[in-house]
Specification:
Oligomer: single chain
Low-confidence stretches: none
Strand content: 5-15%
Number of helices: 7
Strand order of the largest sheet: 3-2-1-4
Order of helices and strands: HEHEHEHEHHH
Distance between the termini: 52 Å
Largest sheet: 4 strands, parallel
Helix content: 40-55%
Length: 197
């Protein structure tokens, strides 16, 4: 009986580790797709918002802002943070809530643009395009599979700008590790659903 319990525990532990590593792998792969290695003196970091019902940035939007801020390259001459999202689930736009968190909590004092009319990821990208045209490099930041979707949408809407895409810093090994398998499954399901439309 003890041997059976040990084997079952080993199999369960191994299975859990494999699932967690698969989640990491899928998120890492997504963070490396549809990006190049463009150089330049200016960059725009587009942070995609997440439904926010309250009057302060929720946990996901706070994390996305931090990922956007750590995506800023200190060696370039100018960086513009573009925060996206309208008032989809609450009284204030996601962009405004993220901007308050970026400036008041994280101490960001650089160039900041609020795109506060969009209600979908497609609109996030579409409405952000005017703020990207004068940037040499573009980073789209969200959870990795969502950021990849944003890059796909930019490629569809404005291929010339999509040629300037580079990686943001939204993937880190071990960050959100327990949630990454679920995020990967959801992202892959959304991609498959979008392909059948």
């Amino acid at each position: 009986m003890a041997e059976f319990v040990r084997k079952r525990t080993w199999l369960s532990t191994t299975g859990l580790v494999l699932v967690l590593l698969w989640g990491e792998w899928e998120n890492w792969r997504a963070s490396h797709r549809l990006v190049g290695s463009v150089t330049g003196a200016s960059e725009a970091i587009v942070v995609l918002g997440y439904r926010n019902a309250g009057t302060r940035a929720n946990m996901m939007n706070r994390w996305r802002v931090r990922a956007g801020l750590r995506s800023i390259d200190p060696t370039v001459a100018s960086s513009r943070l573009v925060l996206c999202g309208g008032a989809c689930a609450g009284p204030q736009s996601e962009a405004a809530l993220m901007a308050r968190y970026a400036t008041e909590t994280c101490g960001y004092s650089g160039e900041l643009v609020l795109e506060d009319q969009s209600r979908t990821t497609w609109e996030n990208i579409s409405f952000a395009i005017p703020y990207l045209k004068d940037s040499d490099r573009i980073k789209i930041v969200s959870i990795p599979l969502h950021a990849e979707k944003g890059r796909q949408y930019l490629a569809q809407q404005c291929p010339e700008l999509a040629s300037r895409l580079v990686r943001g810093a939204d993937y880190r090994f071990g960050e959100w590790m327990a949630a990454k398998p679920l995020l990967a499954l959801y992202g892959l399901w959304k991609q498959a659903r979008d392909r059948t439309r």
